[in-house]
Amino acid sequence: MNFDFNNPYLSTRIPIFARNVVSTSHPLAAQAGLRILQQGGNAVDAAVATAAVMTLVEPVSNGLGSDAFCILWDGKELHGLNASGPAPKAWTPEYFKTKYGADAANPPMRGIDSVTVPGAVRGWVAMSERFGKLPFADLMAPAIDIAERGYLVPPVVQGKWAAATPVLQSQPGFAQAFLPWGRAPEVGELFRFAAAARALKAIARTKGEAYYTGEIAEALARFSAEQGGALTVADLAAYQPEWVKPISRDYRGHTLHEIPPNGQGIAALIALGILEKFDIASLPVDSVESQHLQIEAMKLAFADVYRYVSERKTMEVTTEQMLDDAYLASRARLIDVKKAQDFKAGNPVKGGTIYLTAADESGMMVSFIQSNYMGFGSGCVEPEFGISLQNRGHGFSLKADSPNVVAPGKRPFHTIIPAFLTKDGQPVMSFGVMGGNMQPQGHMQTLVRMLDYKQNPQAACDAPRWRFNAGLEINVEAAMNPATVQGLRDMGHHLEVINDSYQDFGAGQFIWLAGNPSVEGYVAASDPRRDGVAAGY
Fold first, then answer.
1. Would you say 201 and 191 are in contact if contact means Cβ atoms under 8 Å apart?
2. Which residues pair with 80 in a beta bridge?
3. Secondary structure in 3-state letters for 345-414
């Protein structure tokens, strides 16, 4: 790809050119990954070490109680890993309606009854055992060191920490773990997490078994029972991550790969399949017309995703039906190029997150995402081991006719999605964007900029974004051209200009293969929205 390396946007950064690269949203985590690479590890080893450190340095987004997903190129082929955990065996619609009332539509947003089985730790182990080079315990060493010695809290993380405190400070274990001074830490204040260090040492010593069958599992089950929850040692012991075949869709001579449902990655594939029916490259990159087409394609994609996507075996339509070219062409014909619309689902039968990516000079590339869902997740923190638990259970429905209705051992609808781009069966880019339903929207917007408009990964990362919410409601970043904003409003979009880019527009990391990985190496980009950093050598 012959990129344009001129960057016209205000938040300009210089992309990193290197043969071994780690890109994520905290420098200590990126340094941990590089440390592992320099010790002889590969990109998978680096990704696992980076992920472990991220549970500490960005606790506002993920923790040792997270779920995770991964797409990786092993040098010869692509692999997907679904490390999202299922509902406890006791969870049924009746379980929640008895506790929270017959009118409850979803499991609660916070608290112990929002917690499904955490999958990330066994995901790390699965990646290490199948593709890693170094002993698993070595990969935990950087995180253990940071948990014991502490780190200085950076501005973006501190802002999220302070904002979450009033909402979560009454949740069990939260104040003990995250408010050691009776308040959120200040910028530059040293935060140590001794309980998490104990957990990481046990995880390192047992290759994760302490978490699922040993002392951590027993502590988690005990904590859940004390809070009236349903998670048991049996639920934890039964869990195994699943290696999956990514789903894909061609776009402009390349192929985008996403994890199949229960995740929302299919939304990006649908949107690009619709957008492919238009000659978007003939329109100026930041024009009203280009942005309008992308918004409308994304709205159509979400209409189907929210109607049909759940755990794959419970879906009433197949992913193949949702991605059928004739069906997507019929959806594309619904777009009015001059008017915003509120789309409904079609009928395919007829026709709080961190992201990191790592690559090494052998050609291995890893796209990895890990999340507690809504910021600190459930707000519940097991005190002995500092396990900050996600709230993925809130993603279930309690409606009997929903494909995403809660059931024992079922995985909920997931927002976190790693992505991978190939061309002619060979790797091109590992990448991802964080932030709830912003993730597939970010995948689509950045790929359009790179593939249709030849913007380099850092410029595509820096460019102002929009975010579809519901109906005709769109948020746009304050950096977007005011003329474009007004033009979209004139088309009927209900636009709100937002200054808080961390909260509303995600952040991304991108590693593009420049050629032979041991010679030309990679071009890496990191997102300024979350103080991202790409590091390499």
1. no
2. 71, 244
3. CCCCCCCCEEEEEEECCCCCEEEEEEECCCCCCCCCEECCCCEEECCHHHHCECCCCCCCECCCCCCCCE
Q: Indicate the helix (H) or strand (E) that contains 195.
A: helix 194-206
Q: 528 to each of 198, 422, 447, how far by Cα in Å? A: 33, 26, 18
Residue 403 and residue 312: Cα distance in Å, rounded?
10
Say which residue the tokens 């049924």 belong to: 92
pLDDT tens figures, 428-483: 999 998 888 899 999 999 999 999 999 999 999 999 999 998 889 999 998 899 99
Please answer whether residues 56 and 395 qualify as being in contact, where contact means their C-beta atoms are separated by less than 8 angstroms: no
CA–CA distance, 51 with 139 (Å, rounded to integer): 10
Catalytic amino acids?
353
Q: What is residue 346's predicted lDDT score, i.e. its pLDDT? A: 86
Residues 456 and 451: their CA atoms lie apart, in Å, by 9
Query: Per the structure block, which two tokens stand in for 116?
Result: 């499904």
The whole-angstrom distance between residue 71's C-alpha and the CA centroid of its chain comes to 12
SS3 of residue 421 by DSSP: strand
